Amino acid sequence: MLPASAGFFLRYIGLMRFLFVRMIATIASVFGAAALAADIPAPIGLDIRLVTAKSGADISPVSIDTAARSALREAVAEAEVTQAQLGPYDPTLSTIWLSLANRALTLGDQEQAAVLFQRAIHNLRLNEGLTSLTQMDALDSWIGNLRQRGDSDALNNILTYRYRLVGFGGEPWNGERVAYATDFLDQKLFELTQGSWINRERDILWLLDHLSNTTDSACFEPDSSIEWCRTLAKRYLAFLYLVEHRVDPFVQDQRDIYLPPPRALRDQSLTYRLEYEESRASREGTRLLKRLEELAEEDNEVSLLHADWQWMHKRNLDAIRRYQSIWEQAPELLKEAVPLPWGLGALQSSRVWNEERPSALLSFTVSEQGRPRNIVGVDADNRSEQRIRRALRQLKFRPAFADGVRIESQQTQRFELLDP
């Protein structure tokens, strides 16, 4: 029989073993997630994006005309009296509300314009039906208003409403449906580039399913159009890039490595479904790109999408072969290095464009491997420069070409933080 001190010693050894295993597992979880995230290049538009002529500072603020706004308020009051006399559903009111809404937009009164557009659309919906041209035009104006205000929740709701009016991705496709689908998908993609994915798994999986079904219906039917297919496929590819970059570290953070759930529960969990979707993202993108090439022979934009996909996934030999083929036909497309991938950095955001964001002007070299090197800040005393430089190092560029071969190239670009 062991003495009491031996029992204490055994318990002490057990405790130390447990703490050691837990410490190693924690370190592996932290550094493993970071390694996985670094293994897949960060998409441009996730942390930073290029500053373009449309970005805010180039938009002049609207001067406030006090007298004109006062006259607008009086006109709205008169319209409300007319509404009380005729009733809220009188068809003549929609014209009045639309006229006043556009007048409010001209004066820069975004909040008043939103209220008036809402009244006009409600009246049009009751009197002209769900898909009248007048209502769709009014919705377009209201959406533009919401973009300027930066009202993300309201913008998401109205884009979803308009998308539902035209079938929510259902066939048959036409130019209008594709345009409305594009606005809706761009907004959804932008939202998923912002903030954490915790408790958003259902939204992510829903969007993956919707994009898959939508692109299949637009691309894999006998009467598929290359224009419609390419437009929707570019959104799907942009989201697949984002999923590949973010899901692995997200799953590592969510998974309980000490007490794994039973197999039946694991297979049905949202986290494991996300992991499964991430594992097949590369194959799904390749399948879609091959279909695009079938629909559009000798299309340089499609060829670039496929070459960029291979380059981002480190299939360098195939990517270089594709780039060289493009260079032979259109060398101007490969004169400058371009941050990859297409899509997330070009999405129309719901933020106010003249909202100031931290930015930095950086000079750097893009290597033959598409990596930014020798990054130097041009701005003096810029507090955001260090964060932007770190984010820039995580990007991968399409390399510049000269005489059909990759070359180093020098760039000076201004980047802004998307989530300061």
Describe this structure in words.
This protein has helices at residues 4-39, 66-86, 92-106, 110-128, 133-149, 152-165, 175-193, 201-219, 226-254, 263-268, 270-295, 300-312, 316-329, 385-393, and strands at residues 48-50, 338-339, 359-366, 372-377, 397-398, 400-402, 405-407, 409-417. The chain contains 14 helices and eight strands. It has a four-stranded antiparallel β-sheet with strand order 1-8-3-4. A two-stranded antiparallel sheet has the order 2-5. The protein is an alpha+beta fold. The radius of gyration is 27 Å and the shape is globular.
Question: How is the topology of this model organized?
Answer:
Blueprint: H1 4-39, E1 48-50, H2 66-86, H3 92-106, H4 110-128, H5 133-149, H6 152-165, H7 175-193, H8 201-219, H9 226-254, H10 263-268, H11 270-295, H12 300-312, H13 316-329, E2 338-339, E3 359-366, E4 372-377, H14 385-393, E5 397-398, E6 400-402, E7 405-407, E8 409-417
Antiparallel strand pairs: 1-8, 2-5, 3-4, 3-8, 6-7
